[in-house]
Amino acid sequence: MFLGIKAPIEKETLDSTVTSKTTSENENFTNFYHEHRLPPWQNNMISYKFYNQEMDGDNVFTGGSRIEDKVGCAFVHFRIEIKVESRKIRLRDGATVFMAEVVAMKEGV
After folding, report:
1. How many domains does the chain have?
2. Which of 33, 41, 46, 59 has its CA at 20 to 30 Å from residue 105's CA atom?
3. CA dist 18 to 5, 27, 31, 43, 79, Å?
4. For residues 50 and 77, what is the distance between their CA atoms, to the nearest angstrom?
């Protein structure tokens, strides 16, 4: 079989396999075990303009992270593009990244 003929046949077989794995007889059932990624051009993207718009008043940026066993968080507070306050906080070793994010938000506000 020539490669030019074999490739479309295999692609058609693969497409039908993916379709059969992602559908079910029950229309109300979604099978998340066989999800597949959308191509980048089919994703709904938020425009850069949305992220880059100027905000009036105060801006507080927060973050929490974990590196090996060390957990910490930080925040920075800006008012009219002038840094008002910033702080780094070290949390106990058993803390989670979620806890670090919450502490950063609590302290930043």
Report:
1. 1
2. 46
3. 21, 17, 12, 19, 52
4. 20
For the purposes of burial, counting CB atoms within 10 Å of the CB of 78, is it exposed (0-12), middle (13-18) or buried (19 or more)?
middle
Q: What is the DSSP string of 40-102?
A: GGGS----HHHHH---SSEEEEEEEEEETTEEEEEEEEEETTEEEEEEEEEEPTT--HHHHHH
Residue 23 inside a domain? The answer is: no
From residue 63, alpha-carbon distances to 68, 72, 78 in Å are: 17, 9, 15
Tell me, yes or no, if the pTM score tops 0.85: no
1 domain residue, yes or no: no
Give the pLDDT confidence of 25-65 residue by residue, as tens digits. 455 666 666 666 777 777 776 666 656 566 678 889 999 99
